[in-house]
Amino acid sequence: MVIYAGLPIVLEQAKVFEKKCIDRAKYGITFKDARNIPAQGGLFGDCGIWVCIFLYRLSHGKRLAVENPVQAALAYREHMANFFFKHRVSSW
């Protein structure tokens, strides 16, 4: 997988190892593949909404799996629309 090899290079170039006092020679990273989670699909081009849903669920300690992915995506879109409408900035 490209990210295994590429991520350390990016971290090195961004001086993350230096700033965080991490020994580059001892650095390692592992990834876990999630199973049984919703994926992009349907008629709505869901990848962006699922990024938002996953970030929300991960940050609130909730399971990633949902019973009805299409309904979850539609409900979260509505939630986001309401949030942005409520907090809109009027420029005139």
From TrEMBL:
<keyword id="KW-0378">Hydrolase</keyword>
<dbReference type="InterPro" id="IPR038765">
    <property type="entry name" value="Papain-like_cys_pep_sf"/>
</dbReference>
<dbReference type="GO" id="GO:0008233">
    <property type="term" value="F:peptidase activity"/>
</dbReference>
<dbReference type="GO" id="GO:0006508">
    <property type="term" value="P:proteolysis"/>
</dbReference>
<keyword id="KW-0645">Protease</keyword>
<protein>
    <submittedName>
        <fullName>Ulp1 protease family, C-terminal catalytic domain-containing protein</fullName>
    </submittedName>
</protein>
